[in-house]
Amino acid sequence: MEEFRAINAHIPRRRKSLAELLNEEEPKIACGDGSEHFFRKKELALLAGMLEEEEREELLLPILIEVSSEGGGYTVPSPRGIEAKLLSKVLDMEMSWSMNKVVIFRPHLFLLRRVLKTCTQYVFTP
């Protein structure tokens, strides 16, 4: 478990809502390793255009992409389905939302990260 703590040091201490980040002059968060993660305003505006006002308050950024060390699978936690809605729009395909997660596949990663480079982060899980 110590290895995962080290490779996940870049993860934010606290994620912020999309609405909160939209109101910041320089949208950023503090990371666990002491660095700062900056968001592109263009990406935030894109996300805002896909969501209702209430969803902007609920969506926490960055969107976390969980990478499993065992099966090599990828999932995105989506407690209320907002991330599933966004992924469906960004990837232009219906994404399945089950058990508060969205399963994504390797080809999706390239497309997702190309569009939302600063609004997504990898998290490595056992």
Topology overview:
Blueprint lengths: L1 H6 L8 E2 H5 L5 E3 L5 E3 L2 H10 L2 H6 L1 E2 L1 E6 L5 E4 L4 H10 L5 E2 L2 E4 L1 H10 L4 E6 L1
Parallel strand pairs: 5-9
Antiparallel strand pairs: 1-4, 2-3, 5-6, 6-8, 7-8
Number of helices: 6
- Which residues form runs of ≥5 with pLDDT under 50? none
For the secondary structure, the number of strands is 9
N-C termini distance: 8 Å
Count of all domains: 1
Task: Report the helical percentage.
Answer: 25-40%
Query: Mean pLDDT score, rounded?
Result: 94
* Strand arrangement, major sheet: 7-8-6-5-9
Gyration radius from CA atoms, angstroms = 14 Å
Overview of this protein structure:
With 126 residues, the chain is an alpha+beta fold. The protein has one domain. The chain is 37% helix and 25% strand. The chain contains six helices and nine strands. The protein has helices at residues 2-7, 18-22, 41-50, 53-58, 82-91, 106-115; strands at residues 16-17, 28-30, 36-38, 60-61, 63-68, 74-77, 97-98, 101-104, 120-125. A five-stranded mixed sheet has the order 7-8-6-5-9. It has a two-stranded antiparallel ribbon with strand order 1-4. Strand 5 and strand 6 form a beta hairpin. The radius of gyration is 14 Å and the shape is globular. It starts with a helix and ends with a strand. The relative contact order is 0.20.
